[in-house]
Design goal:
Blueprint lengths: L7 E10 L2 E11 L4 E6 L5 H8 L7 E6 L2 E3 L4 H6 L2 E4 L11 H6 L10 H11 L18 H14 L4 E5 L7 H16 L3 E5 L3 H7 L2 E6 L2 E7 L5 H9 L18 E9 L5 E10 L4 E5 L6 H8 L6 E6 L9 H6 L2 E4 L13 H5 L9 E2 L2 E2 L1 H15 L15 H14 L4 E5 L7 H16 L3 E5 L3 H7 L2 E6 L2 E7 L5 H9 L7
Parallel strand pairs: 3-8, 3-9, 6-7, 7-8, 13-19, 13-20, 15-18, 18-19
Antiparallel strand pairs: 1-2, 1-4, 4-5, 9-10, 11-12, 11-14, 16-17, 20-21
Helix pairs in contact: 5-6
Pfam families: ABC_tran
GO molecular function, one term: ATP hydrolysis activity
Organism: Cystobacter ferrugineus
Amino acid sequence: METSPPLLRLSNITRSFPGVVANDHVSLDLHAGEVHALLGENGAGKTTLMNILYGLDAPDSGEILVDGRPVRMGSPAQALRRGIALVPQHPLLVERHTVAENLALGLRGGWLMTRRRLRATLHERLAGQPLPMDLDTRVENLSAGEKQRLEILRALLRGVRVLILDEPTSVLTPQEVEPLFQQLAQLKSQGVGILFISHKLDEVLAHSDRITVLRAGRKVGEASARETTREQLVKLMLGREAVPRPRLAPPRPGVRLEVQGLEVRSDRGTRAVKNIHFSLAPGEILGIAGVAGSGQHELVEALTGLRPYQGQVRFEGQPPRATSPAELFTQGVAHVPEERAAGTVPSLSVAENLALRTWNTALRRGPWLDRARMEREALDIIQTYGIATPGPRTPLRLLSGGNIQRAVIARELAGSPRLLIAVHPTYGVDIGATERVHRLLIERAQEGMSVLLVTEDLEELFTLSHRVAALYQGELRGPWPASEVDVERLGRMMTQATEGAA
């Protein structure tokens, strides 16, 4: 008995870049009504494979088949015409426009419709799909979860048959994750095939049907989600067993950082941070959670010399001697920024980026830069922190996002800071890199380094933190000992106008 071909087949896809084979004869099938997860470390080839499928890149060899017929994806427009849509990690929406106006981008001739006709058409075309927000709401007022679901609805208006989701829950609160997966389950029941890229193994096991694992550009395994375990997936991804993370040691006596009555204004002049008080002890990791726009961006910029503030900040009992990021670094304050682009120069080499903090001091030989020493030190850092790169002279822009993040963290920690302000330190990185970063932060805290950890990943927050706090509309709730607050409660503190830990 003949079986119908899969909805989508990638057959022996190969793609090389200078010094790197990103995809090495990778094959996978996606069936209608199936969720197929794609796992792998940063640099394993996941993004390249999805770029090829969506028409953003072309393979050196191999083919793509839709309904059993070979097709060529020359552009995203061609992919969309064949029913293949990509929902990116960061939604690409017009923030100042309404939900209806953004959905109009998914309709042929949508911008030529009257407002009344557009609303009627949207309700008709999205019948059976729950609208998670009012059509007249501006996108800038939506939560991250609502924006994510809006992107999916826009894809549905284009008649999507294959939906690619790139880290769909990376910026969502716990309360927003479940509605997203309910929406995906509904799409699955309608016959949509879903390719799901994630580093969160529990989500993958709970919500996917099949799982493909890539390592170093090659497909190293495929399994039914029901018939595999987290430990087996980790071993496939890393090529080894996971290393247990060290235990948190108690903080040391004293105060490393003290913040009193801190107020910070946004770029628009509004109060983004309102009368915040907290302290941080030597060897302590204090985790602060908050959804985007809650004031964490302005808080971090104030503490790292990037934004003026009112109130008092004391580092080791004294006001900072200077407030520029470079001068604060010489005083022992390091910073892993929210955006990788803010902490790197992509056109420079890996070695040059690793030396951005020290080139003008430790790496000077008279008026000249000691490039030989810079590259020797870069090789040591690359090996110590497991940065996957062909070499220290490779332009940083050619590395995967996760390896760029490793380079930023390695550079900041190489200076042996006494205070590290880290924003989303494992954002978008794989389980191996996350394991390494977590171990480094705990080990450095054991040695006495203080860490102010700002993240939307509540699992990470509770894994690493001695105490936790939540930012809501610029106000700090907490801190509380991590043992006294659970994930759900902290999630409510981040998103609801209620007070207290109870």
